Amino acid sequence: MDPEFNGAELRLARLFPGLALEDVADRVGKTRQYLHKLETGQATPTDELIVQLADALDVEPDFFSGVRFPPISDEQFHFRKLFTTRAVVKQITMARAEMFGRLVGYLDAKLKLPPLKIPTVSDAHSLIEVERASDRCRAEWGLGLGPIAHMTRLAENVGVVVTTFQSVSKEVDALSVSLQRPIIVRNEAKPSACRQRFDVGHELGHFVLHQGRATGDRVTESEANRFASALLVPRSMMLKLFPRPRFSRLDWTGIRDFKLTWKVSKAAILYRARQLDLISDDQYRTGVITLKRTGEGIVEREDGLIPAEIPEMLGRSFAVLAAKKGIHPAQIASALRVRLALLQDLVGFSLDEAVVTARRPALTLVR
User: Fold this and answer.
1) In this structure, are residues 232 and 148 in contact, taking their beta carbons and an 8 Å threshold?
2) Domain limits of the chain?
3) What rounded mean pLDDT belongs to the chain?
4) Whole-structure pTM over 0.85, yes or no?
């Protein structure tokens, strides 16, 4: 067994399932203080303790002494609720993202995933320039000016892996990680497909606008929101097709139809209309109050008519590896130095089934 024990890997394996130092210490019969020394490199465990730690954390013993991966910096994480997210939740989320990034790196080495096609626009310093950045993306991605049928598939087609972290989904609104192969983590606790579509657009905005920049403040969040709004409904189409108020009263029937066509929530439509001065401040406030009064502040009446968007790349990758290369989940777990149970938790779908969720070709084998 490699004698070089990496305490940072122990911390990663502990945080991944959301365990405190006390939890792991109890499982292996040690003190919290000793576990802290192991994580910070002040102590080295025996081979017997390494095996106990591995069993307690669903990893292989050599996980703690394998190849050292560079840590993901704070600037690579884009949290929607940076200042309201509890510190422990943030740490767990970052640990899961780091582990997920390793899985994505493995898949990238084995398969020819969709090439990354995300332009970098670092000089968008005004909201008008953010709109132009969105227009550029629509042009480069061949979207035209019409509604985007499937935002999650769009993100995957331009090279992003979309997933969810079930254990923290209710506490983290949405986030993304700027890696060589970027990752978007959706909040599947949200019942509205429209809101999830907006989240995907928001995170794409971070990739386009904020490479190498810390985000989470009002400025960067506002820019990402503007990008998502413009990506979902281009300015020219909003000016042309938005149902204008009738005698100062909002046209709710028209807004409903607009929502079903563009798959954007009524709240987001009102927000976009105010951005472009298609409605007044008073009309916007009235619209928001009406949605809350009718019980549509979070879930809107038509949400059930818009199907959920399921990420496809990860499931397809496992299916292609098994069918074309004979690489099955147990071998993937072994390559990552983790147990199957941890891999199952990481991907969030049944490893026994590894079902292909889409029929269209999206992955080819590396030659």
Assistant:
1) yes
2) 1-68, 127-305, 312-365
3) 90
4) yes
